[in-house]
């Protein structure tokens, strides 16, 4: 049975290898079998970038280039801009009644991001409630399966709590619970060994990274700090080079041989890193090229986004009516009994 897929990305920068393994790879498969909506979450990105709207605006185009270069097919996937769907914000407002302030304060993803971004006491109300607006994104579009990275798990749990509360209060089943779909690499670490490759942490390799960028990032990549001499046995666990090889080297037997060799001793970090550089170059080069081509056709790229946004708007209007119907606030002015 065809399922509705809803997912998205914040236009805070170009997409990177973490997006690919964590979510995009799954989206490429899902679009053939299911009914997929992909949202560029500009309004959510503004919650921590409200003072840099130009950054968000220009990155909408960059993210579009990334989607099309990587193979998101606009014939199969509806791509749209969040801020253009007013129904999302109306639904967010109703959903805010379905969650306590205390619960929002304890969302582990929000807590970690607040700390990482140095917000703490000065956190805005808009940022605090972004998981509620994400619940609106998912449910307005009836998202059943959500291909996301591991950092999104607490947000999805929050969404499902809202769904259950809403359905029980209004005695309805108009909202569906959403299931996360994780990939085999749900959290790609940063090249610096940090927990997550992220646009905001400045540790990312984008789809337009040059051979030199790749070389620089891999050279600095975290390995086994106790593997000092080539002949020493080295560790695989926590070794970022192997995490990346697992994620990007298409030849799994070769990766296994390298792991065995490394653990036995005799395989130097630099030899290993040279191999990873080549693997990443082979992965990124065609994306880099495709991106360059697409950049020459901005009208075509923006037409796709415009068309997708119009389709999403129609869907949003229809769904919000259904949801308001369930809340008994879908007033019909022609019918005077509606307000009695
Ligand atoms: P920001 O730093 O602005 O939050 P980000 O790099 O975290 O940006 P998002 O737009 O927040 O990117 O995330 C989009 C999707 O990509 C989410 O599903 C997220 O879980 C996934 N994702 C992002 N980074 C990684 C990663 N390093 N590994 C796996 N999945 C990731
Ligand atoms: Mg993020």
Query: What does the average pLDDT come to?
Result: 95
Strand proportion: 5-15%
Instruction: Please summarize the sheet with the most strands.
Output: 3 strands, parallel
**Total count of domains:** 2
**Series of secondary-structure elements, N-terminal to C-terminal:** EHEHHEHHHHHEHEHHHHH
Query: Uncertain runs with pLDDT below 50, 5 residues or more?
Result: none
* Annotated CATH topology of the largest domain: Rossmann fold
Classification by helices and strands: mainly alpha
Bound molecules: adenosine-5'-triphosphate, magnesium ion
Topology:
Blueprint: E1 4-9, H1 17-33, E2 35-40, H2 42-46, H3 53-70, E3 77-81, H4 86-95, H5 101-105, H6 108-116, H7 125-128, H8 130-140, E4 145-147, H9 153-169, E5 179-181, H10 211-219, H11 240-248, H12 252-264, H13 269-295, H14 298-327
Parallel strand pairs: 1-2, 2-3, 4-5
Account of the protein in words:
The protein is mainly alpha-helical. It is built from 14 helices and five strands. Adenosine-5'-triphosphate is lined by residues 9-10, 12, 18-19, 21-23, 148-149, 151-152, 186-188, 196-200.
